[in-house]
From TrEMBL:
<protein>
    <submittedName>
        <fullName>Uncharacterized protein</fullName>
    </submittedName>
</protein>
Length: 115
């Protein structure tokens, strides 16, 4: 799974006959901020608890998401490198999150942020 630059497009993540699609807003939309990215990270974290099997991969992804959430909490800006770190984590654990709709929403935000 790769997340690239997304403008006025849709992101679809799916496998095993499951597809989740999130549409990114049209032109001129402001880039998401730290609070919006934090909300998406927390939503994915919660969805993983409900939907993904426990195991070493999920534990590692949980830890990565918790670390990102800590950096975003109370912050008004997104630290340099954080978007790339989060994108790499989602790509690494794509098989684990491919059917989790919250992953598509987070992927859409990452695409809007570039990096």
């Amino acid at each position: 799974m790769r997340f690239g630059d997304i403008h006025g497009s849709a992101v679809s993540i799916g496998g095993s006959h499951n597809t989740n699609t999130v549409h990114q807003g049209g032109t001129g939309a402001a880039a998401p901020g730290a609070a919006e990215l934090l909300d998406a990270v927390l939503a994915l974290r919660e969805a993983l608890v409900r939907e993904a099997p426990r195991g070493a991969d999920r534990t590692a992804l949980d830890a990565e998401l918790d670390g990102v959430a800590e950096q975003l909490e109370g912050s008004e800006t997104i630290r340099p490198g954080l978007v790339g770190r989060l994108r790499a984590a989602l790509e690494r654990w794509a098989p684990l999150i491919e059917t989790v709709s919250a992953a598509a929403a987070l992927g859409s935000l990452l695409g809007a942020l570039g990096g």
